[in-house]
Amino acid sequence: VELLNDFLSNLTEIIINNKGTLDKYEGDAILAFFGAPVFFESHSQAAIDAGVEMQNKLVCQINFQQHHLL
């Protein structure tokens, strides 16, 4: 549970840093949207940037755990 909480917290921070709006947590998923409630022109690029950053964070966390569990 602690691992999931840490992971979701990190992803939420990435969403917020990319001007995303957190909608809700659903199980192990995060629902978020970009460009609302306040519209901004680059909302689609912000969503893509957040997604790529979240994928990179996941890879880093997996590598860290694998390294420290050996």
Describe this structure in words.
This protein is α+β, with helices and mostly antiparallel strands. The protein has two helices and two strands. It has helices at residues 2-17, 43-69; strands spanning 20-26, 29-34. It has a two-stranded antiparallel ribbon. A hairpin with a 2-residue loop joins strand 1 and strand 2. Helix 1 packs antiparallel against helix 2 (43-69). The longest helix is centred in the last third of the chain and has 27 residues, at 43-69. The mean pLDDT is 93.
Q: Tell me how many strands there are.
A: 2
Oligomer: single chain
Mean pLDDT: 93
Beta strand %: 15-25%
How far apart are the termini? 21 Å
Decide which structural class fits the backbone: alpha+beta
Task: Name the strands of the widest sheet in spatial order.
Answer: 1-2
- Helical amount among residues, as a percent range? 55-70%
What are the low-pLDDT stretches, counting only 5+ consecutive residues below 50? none
What's the tally of helices?
A: 2
Secondary-structure element order, N to C: HEEH
Global morphology: elongated
Largest sheet, if any? 2 strands, antiparallel
- The Cα radius of gyration reads 13 Å
Topology record:
Elements: H1 2-17, E1 20-26, E2 29-34, H2 43-69
Antiparallel strand pairs: 1-2
Helix pairs in contact: 1-2
Write a brief structural summary.
Helices cover 61% and strands 19% of the residues. The chain has helices spanning 2-17, 43-69; strands spanning 20-26, 29-34. The chain has a two-stranded antiparallel ribbon.
